[in-house]
């Protein structure tokens, strides 16, 4: 999950929204790739990227928290990543 990559990198690698442009002259094929982490595996910013001058930007999280977010009404108001930000 890309949100988890941004958390692990402490914001160094920012996620971007996927956008597809339609081309009426060419056919397009999409391939879905589904993957996830174990429910209780803790995702946190890498300790190598945290220091006094570069503090952690995100709360620790896990895949179960992401699934709870999807079930909540918060998913219509803000992104999962915004719910994990400390600042």
TrEMBL record:
Keywords attached to this entry: Iron, Metal-binding, Oxidoreductase
Gene3D superfamilies, alphabetized: B-lactam Antibiotic, Isopenicillin N Synthase, Chain
Keyword Electron transport annotated: no
Molecular function GO terms recorded: metal ion binding; oxidoreductase activity
Domain Isopenicillin N synthase-like Fe(2+) 2OG dioxygenase: 3-34
InterPro entries noted in UniProt: IPNS-like_FE2OG_OXY, IPNS-like_sf, Plant_2OG-oxidoreductases
Pfam families attached to this UniProt entry: 2OG-FeII_Oxy
Name listed for the protein in its UniProt record: Isopenicillin N synthase-like Fe(2+) 2OG dioxygenase domain-containing protein
Organism: Solanum verrucosum
